[in-house]
Structures are given as C-alpha cells and as structure tokens.
Write a structure and sequence with these properties.
Helix content is 38%, strand content 18%. It is an alpha/beta fold.
C-alpha cells in the first residue's frame, strides 16, 4: 500500500515539476535563487555525496548553525550536509567540505547513495527523502522536531500523509512535551523529548568591535515593514545609536532607501556597514551577512524581528541572551515558542507598546538563558547508526 502511494506521489510530483520548469527557469535569474534552483531542480553542479558518512540535512541558516555542536562530537566521521537555501549553504561550508543542495524529491531515488545515518532538522519532512533513505538501508533520525501552534491544524488535516512519512523515521527528538504529543498524533514512533539543540550552540564572535558610551539598539533580523514599525515608534536621542540588520540580503537596497530618508528627516547621520566597516553614524545599515552575533556583543537593546508582522513566526532569542542584551520581541513567535521558553527577561509586546518600552530601555532587565538541551542521547543514536 505504501509503495503504491509512493508511486502515485512520485508521478504527481513529476507532473508538477514538468509544468513548473518555465517558472523555475525565470526564478533562477533572481539573485536569491541563482545557485539553489539550478542545483535543486536541474542538478547543476550538484552531484551525490562521494563518500558514505553521517548525512545531516537542514533547511536554512539557523538550523544549519545548530548542527555545529553535534558535528564537533563526530570528529572521526565523514560529515555530509544538504540544505535548501543559499544562506544555509554558506553556513554549512563552515562545518564541512561536503555540502550539497537537497534536490527536488523526484531526483532523490537516483541521487541518494548509501549513508551510515541520515539526521534531519526540525520540520524538513520530505516524504521521498525519508522513504528512499530507508529503502537504501539508512538509519533515519529527526532532531529538534517541532509542530507550531499555527501549523498544527494543517498537519492534522493531512495526518494520513504524515503517518506515512513518520513510518520511515526511526527516532524523533522533540523540542518539548507538547511537540512530542503532537508528533505522536501524526504517527511518530520512538520519541525522545530533548529540548532545543540551538540552546547548546557555542556562540562566539568572529570579530570584536569597539563599543563607545552610546546606547546601542539593534533591530535584528528584520522583515518587510518592521524597520518602519519600530523606528517610527521611538524617539532617538543624542546618546543613542541604531543598528539595522535585515534578515534577507535581497532587502538591503530597499531598507537603505528607507533609512536614508528617515535619517534625513530626523537630522541623523547614516551609513552602510559595507562601506564604513564601523558603527560611527547614528544609524547604520548592516548590509553584509555573518555579522549579527558580533553586533549582539556590543548591543544594549535588541528588537528581534520577524515578530512584529504576520506569517514569519519570530527569530532565535538565544544569541542576544547569550550576551545579556535587553531583548524586546513582538508576540508573533509561533515558530520559536520553545526557544523563548529557554530565555528569561524577554519582553513580548505589541507594536503600539514599542514607544513606551523604548522610553524605559535603560531600566529593562537583561535577558539570560535558563535552560539548555542535552546532546548526548542524539550523539548516541547517531553513533549506533555508524557502527
């Protein structure tokens, strides 16, 4: 029965792929997808892994970064990593020389070669990925598994489909008991509640920046309209500095135009980090990747983006909390609830409250991490698959 469904699913995906080819070709000209679409959908410069090893799969930047402590414990193993996004790819290259974009599902039966174990992060529930892995005798593990409040009903609506996926997963490590219960409803078998592995990350700066006596407020991982929502609500005083770090590089130019106009209107100095390499202006746009952790270290207050607009679900509070920053977030954190439970003194507010909280910014309590995940059980399960 499962095999028949797989054949039907594969046929449906193939039809969808053939119809989508013109659109995919057009989309591949966009800077954001210039590498990922040719690699994933046309296998351009994207061969199978050359050697058998521990195969990690993650989606994007945050999930890939969370793999670091696991990989550091597997020093004697060949590490293969597949990703979905270009930011995830760049981060994965820091962890292993064997990095690929995960091909579209119809290519996986021919692309996947024998590996010792497959370790997949969070919500990367691709049916063909797990099914082909099991048919090729690979142990399958899902780590950091979560089902957000927002997506729970959608998962339940397709419970029959997810039951098939989970039938191909040997072990599931859930972020919380709530996640474990939901995963069980969807058909997961062996479930271990292990916390969020992102809390185990060893956070370190790649460059030290000098901090002066100004109060530095960082708008971190901002999405569409969030710069305007926050900056239009606060009164920037003489002793303030503002650093803006958009989440996605394709927004740099648009945010630059907004900040130029805002700074001019408010009588403030403004500059782009890519040109200045410092934070001497009143407002700085960080238009390069990989600097956010370095900036957290010199920040007094952090507004966490992706939380003041709908449909994003918030971003990781652990990194600013590691440096003891004061942290303000919006209430739209449905993708990060488990992480927020690990941090003390994070202020969850509505956009209309930004003005009042910024007024009392210096008296806000500093955030701190109060709980961490354990990685020993995960390492043990991975190691069992390598013997």
């Amino acid at each position: 029965m499962k095999l028949l469904f797989l054949l039907f699913y594969f046929s449906l995906l193939t039809l969808f792929y053939l119809i989508s080819i013109p659109f995919l070709i057009l989309l591949s000209f966009k800077k954001k997808y210039r590498e990922s679409i040719p690699a994933r959908f046309f296998l351009y410069k994207n061969p199978p892994f050359e050697k058998s090893g521990v195969w990690f799969h993650s989606c994007s930047l945050g999930e890939t970064k969370s793999l670091k402590p696991l990989i550091e414990e597997l020093k004697n193993e060949i590490i293969n990593i597949s990703v979905i996004t270009h930011t995830g790819f760049d981060e994965a290259k820091k962890l292993s020389k064997n990095v690929r974009y995960l091909p579209f599902e119809i290519f996986l039966p021919f692309w996947i070669k024998r590996q010792k174990v497959l370790v997949v992060t969070e919500a990367e529930l691709w049916l063909m990925l797990f099914a082909v892995a099991k048919y090729k005798g690979i142990k399958t593990i899902l780590i950091n598994a979560r089902i957000s409040d927002r997506s729970y009903k959608r998962y339940l609506a397709f419970r029959f489909f997810y039951k098939i996926i989970f039938s191909y997963i040997d072990v599931v490590f859930a972020q919380s008991k709530k996640d474990a219960n939901r995963l069980k409803e969807l058909g997961a078998k062996k479930i271990i509640v292990n916390g969020n592995l992102k809390s185990f990350q060893k956070i370190s700066v790649s460059k030290e920046y000098e901090k002066d006596d100004k109060f530095i407020t960082t708008l971190a991982s901002t999405h569409e309209n969030e710069e305007e929502i926050i900056l239009s609500s606060i009164n920037i005083e003489k002793g303030d500095k503002i650093i803006v770090v958009p989440r996605h590089p394709e927004r740099f130019e648009k945010v630059d135009l907004f900040l130029k106009e805002f700074a001019k209107r408010e009588g403030l100095s403004y500059g782009r980090f890519s040109k200045m390499k410092d934070f001497k202006t009143d407002i700085t746009l960080v238009d390069v990747m990989g600097e956010l952790v370095n900036i957290y270290k010199i920040s007094d207050l952090v507004f966490l983006g992706g939380s003041f607009v709908k449909n994003v679900g918030g971003h990781n509070p652990l990194e600013p909390a590691f440096f003891g920053c004061r942290v303000i977030s919006g209430k739209e954190i449905f993708n990060q609830n488990a992480l927020f439970e690990l941090v003390e003194n994070v202020y969850l507010i509505e956009p209309k409250e930004i003005k009042d909280f910024f007024k009392k910014r210096k008296s806000l309590k500093r955030s701190k991490i109060i709980s961490k995940a354990e990685i020993d059980l995960v390492i043990e399960e991975i190691s069992c698959g390598t013997r």
